[in-house]
Design goal:
342 residues; binds S-adenosyl-L-homocysteine; two-stranded antiparallel ribbon; 36% helix
Length: 342
């Protein structure tokens, strides 16, 4: 049986009419699905009992379920979601003042194999359907209200997986989160993070992508980056630069580079110089990220090196932020999302 959320609105309309109901019932059902974000037919209270029964005889409802919750001492919470086929993914809520940021996954596992990232070690299992990305938001939003008294204010596509390799579902989920038929959030509150899939970046540029775009750079030196991020092999740094230039021309937006500081690997003065040179092509903001321990040989940079790195970039008039990680004690921080004991 098809999931009710896998059928198009037109198909739903056809179904409703064949069931002997008025076409506007389809609109009502659609509202329950995407505006109210329900997880079952029973919750659709303005739909007649008979139609609800017909729906449940014809369609399944594959809502994800929160199965694991881990609370960090810093109030970050990590959720393990069980999907209809038994697979697990993770999402994280990160509160800061009035803001609550939700980090969502886009794939089960990941094909990128970044040397420093725990998710990469799982390998790629499958893409998430847009309804599974949407479920993470709906379920975590209820938790955000319960735990922090605020709904989710920002969403980052930075959980497990590479969003631009699940393009259609990611775009559809953003549409459902931002459209007035869906959750009506401002696109400016959403950020998509990519390991640097150039073809996907060009596609975003062509569709005049409204959310923020972040690129995990981690090194602007081709030889170093290919070791850290094998994705560089088919998406070389110069092509990435061209794609980002194109993105900037088309959208007028500034791109954020994420840069993980790894001790003795990419944190020298020379690395900072190469980075600054690479960034000259278009306006960027740099988020320096503290490395979170994973099952890998890497270590975070010494505070002195971090300070020098920042100082150098600032001396070149670059916009730099230092990001301290949250949720480390529960393995909820960047790069720590992995199937553990599941
Ligand atoms: N595939 C996408 C989104 C997921 S990764 C991407 O690559 O951007 C989210 C961010 O966490 C990326 O910047 C990633 O490089 C970073 N990250 C991965 N492992 C990490 C670790 N061990 N410590 C800190 N950040 C890490």
């Amino acid at each position: 049986m098809d999931d009710i959320r896998y059928v198009s609105f037109e198909e739903l309309q056809q179904f409703v009419v064949l069931a002997g109901e008025k076409p506007f019932r389809a609109k009502q059902i659609n509202e329950w699905l995407w505006k109210k974000g329900v997880g079952s037919f029973e919750e659709m209270t303005n739909v007649s009992q008979i139609l609800r029964e017909k729906l449940s005889n014809s369609f399944s409802f594959r809502r994800a379920v929160i199965e694991v919750e881990a609370k960090s001492s810093d109030t970050t919470v990590k959720f393990g979601f069980r999907l209809f086929d038994g697979k697990m993914i993770e999402g994280v809520l990160i509160p800061a003042g009035d803001r609550v940021t939700a980090c969502v996954s886009t794939q089960v596992g990941c094909a990128m194999h970044c040397a420093f990232c725990a998710t990469g070690q799982m390998g790629f299992i499958r893409n998430l359907h847009f309804s599974e990305i949407f479920d993470q938001f709906i379920l975590m939003n209820a938790k955000a209200l319960e735990y922090y008294g605020h709904p989710i204010s920002n969403i980052v596509y930075m959980g497990m997986g590479e969003p631009l390799l699940n393009f259609m579902n990611v775009m559809k989920s953003i549409d459902l989160l931002t459209s007035k038929e869906g959750q009506g959030l401002s696109p400016q509150r959403i950020t998509l993070s990519t390991a640097g899939i150039t073809e996907g970046i060009r596609k975003l540029a062509d569709m005049d992508f409204k959310p923020g775009l972040a690129v995990s750079l981690h090194s602007a030196d081709p030889k170093k980056r290919i070791h850290l991020m094998p994705v560089t092999e088919h998406n070389p740094l110069d092509e990435l630069q061209d794609a980002l230039k194109y993105y900037h021309q088309k959208t007028g937006e500034r791109v954020t580079f994420e840069y993980l500081l790894l001790n003795g690997i990419n944190d020298s003065q020379r690395d900072a110089e190469v980075l600054a040179a690479y960034c000259r092509a278009f306006p960027v903001k740099i988020n320096l990220i503290e490395f979170n321990a994973t099952d890998s040989p890497f270590q975070k940079s010494e505070p002195e090196n971090v300070r020098r790195f920042i100082q150098f970039l600032e001396s070149r008039n670059m916009v730099v932020n230092l990001r301290h990680s949250r949720g480390k004690d529960i393995d909820a921080a960047c790069g720590q999302l992995i199937k553990k004991n599941m």
